[in-house]
Amino acid sequence: MLHRTAEVRRGGTIVVLGANGGVGSTLVQLARHAGITVIGTASARHHDTVRALGATPVDYRDPELYATIRALAPEGVDAVFDHVAGPGLNESWRLLRAGGTLVAYGNASTKEDEGGNFWPTIRLFSRLALWNYLPNGKGAHFYNLWAGRRFTIAAFRAKQREDLTAVLRLLGEGVITPQVAATMPLSATADALTLAESRTVAGKVVIIPDA
Ligand SMILES: NC(=O)c1ccc[n+]([C@@H]2O[C@H](COP(=O)([O-])OP(=O)(O)OC[C@H]3O[C@@H](n4cnc5c(N)ncnc54)[C@H](OP(=O)(O)O)[C@@H]3O)[C@@H](O)[C@H]2O)c1
After folding, report:
1. 16-50 as b/e: b if 16+ CB within 10 A
2. Are 94 and 80 in contact (CB under 8 A)?
3. How far apart are CA 194 and CA 158, in angstroms?
4. Whether 33 contacts 27, CB under 8 Å
5. CA distances from residue 47 to 28, 42, 130 in whole angstroms, order as listed
6. What is the tens place of the pLDDT at every residue in 29-62?
7. String of DSSP letters for 187-208
8. Which pLDDT belongs to residue 170?
9. Of all protein residues, whose CA lies closest to atom 5 belonging to ligand 1?
10. Fewer Cβ atoms within 10 A, N terminus or C terminus of the chain?
């Protein structure tokens, strides 16, 4: 998302929604390693964690959220990584400078909606497609880790191998650290899922085999 889709360069500034989450915390660390300034949204309880990862935390429940981000990046940002979608997607788009890129990769805000996720997903894709036609130099993309696996399997595998090798090498070198909120035994899977879905954790809940 950071290097292939948004192609953010050293010295750039990005916004990562859910910077305390599994994807978000990894994205923050990869960006900081690449010399990119990061503004990360998270609930206030996770601000110390987000700050420790090297990002400037902002509270996504604050009504002044977008004004606060604009004050931090008055000329707009190079990319926004948004897995929340819904009405806030318009705001993500508006945060971009000319030439910036919106990378949507989920729709957390509508996944519990009655009637399922089909129409919210269609609306999301339509909005991204429409925005790409506007003559303002900005780009809007949906990133899907699994894209291409059906029709171009060899290219898909080569890309995954290259990207995951790069990420795992940085992990081995200690450049990035996985954020593990809790480690729980397989026999406590229900509790582990309850905790993971509680929206109180920073990082992932890991389930390990029973001793
Ligand atoms: N497209 C792809 O290829 C791909 C691949 C993997 C994952 N995903 C998507 O990426 C998203 C993140 O995955 P993850 O594993 O990082 O999840 P995670 O560890 O549970 O983290 C989710 C993060 O999003 C925040 N969040 C959740 N709902 C929100 C809302 N309505 N408004 C604002 N912030 C919200 C959470 O904040 P709190 O902690 O404050 O609740 C948390 O920081 C998921 O939606 C997943 O479906 C997409």
Report:
1. bbbbbbbbbbbbbbbbbeeebbbbbbbbeebbebb
2. no
3. 36
4. no
5. 13, 7, 34
6. 999 999 999 999 999 999 999 999 999 999 999 9
7. GGHHHHHHHHTTT--SSEEEEE
8. 97
9. 145
10. C
Q: How far is ligand 1, taken at its centre, from the CA of residue 25, in Å?
A: 10
CATH architecture of the domain covering 13-142: 3-Layer(aba) Sandwich (3.40)
39 close to 67: Cβ distance less than 8 angstroms: no
Cα dihedral angle (28, 32, 35, 38), rounded to 10 degrees? 50
Cβ 109 under 6 angstroms from ligand 1: yes
Domain ranges of the chain: 13-142, 156-208
Which of ligand 1's atoms lies nearest the C-alpha of 17? 34
Q: Is 57 in the pocket of ligand 1 (CB under 6 A)?
A: no
Residue with CA nearest ligand 1 atom 44: 106
For CA atoms 165, 171, 175, 180, give the dihedral sign.
positive
Question: Which ligand 1 atom is nearest residue 45's CA?
Answer: 40
The residue ranges of the chain whose pLDDT is under 70 are none
Whether this model's pTM surpasses 0.85:
yes
Q: Is the C-beta atom of 131 inside 6 A of ligand 1? A: no
Instruction: Write the single-letter amino acid at 22.
Output: G
Report how far ligand 1's centroid is from the alpha carbon of 199 (Å).
10
